[in-house]
Specification:
Elements lengths: L6 E4 L3 H12 L4 E4 L3 H9 L7 E3 L3 H6 L6 E4 L5 H10 L8 E4 L5 H12 L4 E8 L1 H7 L2 E6 L4 H11 L2 E2 L3 E2 L5 E2 L2 H30 L4 H11 L7 H10 L23 H12 L4 H13 L2 H10 L11 H34 L5 H7 L11 H10 L10 H24 L4 H13 L6 H12 L33
Helix pairs in contact: 1-6, 8-11, 8-12, 8-14, 9-10, 11-12, 12-18, 14-17, 14-18, 15-16
């Protein structure tokens, strides 16, 4: 029994390999398996040589090499491959054994798998793992959810390998039932989409609007990373802008084709917002920005046919750069506010009882969106767990209020110069909508009632009482039922 492994891992792509090395480095013996068996031998005899790592050539060998209850973590492509591996492994497991899906799975799949495997006596965990290959090796943010009976068994491993912050607190804790872990990871990725797009828009205003070189912009981002914008994404942006192509000597960023890829988590987050009726327009705009970047040839043609402003910026460039800093920070706050609004709605809808302060802590280290101001987010929810919106917290209210003028100036300047800033302007629209006591939805309700007799509520009558107007004088008194899809 003492020679048996503490955990088995399936899938030897870069994330799987690095997680194994991380686990082994923290004193755990790991068994590994990959569908292409040669990868097992290459890994064990390469990066894993001399370490407490057991290479397995079959599923049977993998299961037999593990202590009980057996813990097996899947690091394979989301969707069908996860189900296929579960089906292969299941016949060899016993009641009480644990299966973990550590990929970027869609949370409804984790809901389904938790229920289905529980009926077979198998404990399932769907866990988000963030931090890329570096995080997997040195300490990721880990967001587990699923069957709570499994947590005590995997907690020592997960919290040992997770990133640590402050007093050594691990960026890993139990999220909640069934799909909660993968939902939180999905929202993390949605915020990541928004964060990245905002940074790109700030870069574009400086590059296309102010004519700054990659080197000049690199210095700006490096400086910004020393203050309130201190974050992993700002840091790597500064690093990227400083790299030159060995062949041409030009900034590498200037040689990269401007078409962005995506794996679907941003789209899933946007869909979840629609499903739950939560406004997350900034995240959706970031997804759409990637979509429009993908039609490069259409844009190339359109650039020669569609006209826009041809102005050059003639004011104080240094002042505008400082204003971009404030606009970026305010926009980032709105992006996180929208993400936490979505988490709040999901927690209520699915009865997950999410701890938003703890989630902010888990995102403080290891993950892609780790940032200094996540401490302020944790403090906001620790102070008021039922906070309706981050924008209502005293700290964030003060920061955004201070950023009002520069935020609007940057967006106006971008519009005047014909530079698209969809995520930054969406953030401001969200802020202005949220702070508006009255929106034009009264007219919208009148329109719906006019053409579809959908009815409306009145400001001078009790809430929940609905009315219909015969707008044309010959529409009759019959009204449609009121419902929300």
């Amino acid at each position: 029994m003492t020679n048996k492994a503490d955990i088995g891992l399936v899938g030897l792509a870069v994330m799987g390999e690095n997680l194994i090395l991380n686990m082994e480095n923290h004193g755990f013996k790991v068994a590994c398996y990959n569908r292409t068996v040669s990868k097992v031998d290459d890994f064990v005899n390469g990066r894993g040589k001399g370490k407490k790592i057991a290479g397995c050539h079959t599923i049977e060998d993998l299961v037999a090499s593990l202590k009980t209850p057996r813990i097996i973590m899947l690091m394979v492509k989301a969707g069908k491959p996860v189900d296929e591996f579960i089906d292969q492994i299941l016949p060899h497991l016993q009641a009480g054994d644990i299966l973990i899906d550590g990929g970027n799975s869609h949370y409804p799949d984790s809901v389904r798998r938790t229920t289905a495997l529980d009926k077979k006596g198998i404990l399932f965990i769907g866990t988000g793992v963030s931090g890329g290959e570096e995080g997997a090796l040195n300490g990721p943010s880990i967001m587990p959810g699923g069957n709570a009976k499994a947590w005590s068994h995997v907690k020592p491993i997960f919290q040992a390998i997770a990133a640590k912050v402050g007093d050594g607190t691990p960026c890993c804790d139990w999220i909640g039932p069934d799909g909660a872990g993968h939902f939180v990871k999905m929202v993390h990725n949605g915020i990541e989409y928004g964060d990245m797009q905002l940074i790109c828009e700030a870069y574009q205003v400086m590059s296309a609007g102010l004519g700054m070189s990659a080197g000049d912009i690199q210095k700006v981002f490096a400086e910004w990373n020393q203050g309130v914008l201190d974050s992993y994404l700002i840091q790597i942006t500064a690093d990227i802008l400083g790299v030159k192509d060995a062949e041409t000597g030009k900034p590498m960023v200037d040689l990269i084709l401007d078409t962005a890829g995506q794996k679907g988590t941003g789209k899933w987050t946007s869909q979840a917002g629609l499903d739950l009726g939560v406004a997350i327009p900034q995240i959706a705009e970031a997804v759409f920005a990637r979509c429009i970047s993908a039609i490069k040839e259409e844009r190339r043609v359109a650039a020669s046919k569609l006209k826009g402003p041809r102005k050059t910026f003639k004011k104080d460039k240094a002042k505008l750069v400082a204003q971009i800093h404030d606009a970026l920070f305010a926009s980032k706050i709105c992006s996180y506010a929208q993400g936490f609004q979505l988490l709040r709605a999901a927690s209520a809808e699915y009865k997950w009882k999410l701890d938003f302060g703890e989630i902010a802590l888990m995102w403080r280290g290891g993950c892609i969106i780790r940032a200094q101001f996540l401490d302020a987010i944790k403090a906001a929810y620790d102070k008021k767990p039922k906070l309706a919106n981050l924008l209502l917290d005293a700290y964030f209210k003060r920061v955004v209020s201070k950023a009002q003028k520069p935020w609007r100036t940057v967006i106006k300047t971008a519009i005047d110069l014909g530079i698209p800033v969809p995520s930054m302007s969406s953030a401001l629209n969200y802020y202005d909508s949220y702070r508006s006591e009255r929106l034009p939805a009264n007219l919208l309700q009148a329109q719906r009632d006019y053409f579809g007799a959908h009815m409306y509520e009145r400001v001078d009558k009790p809430a929940g009482e609905f009315f219909h107007t015969d707008w044309t004088g010959h529409g009759g008194k019959t009204a449609s039922t009121t419902y929300v899809v």
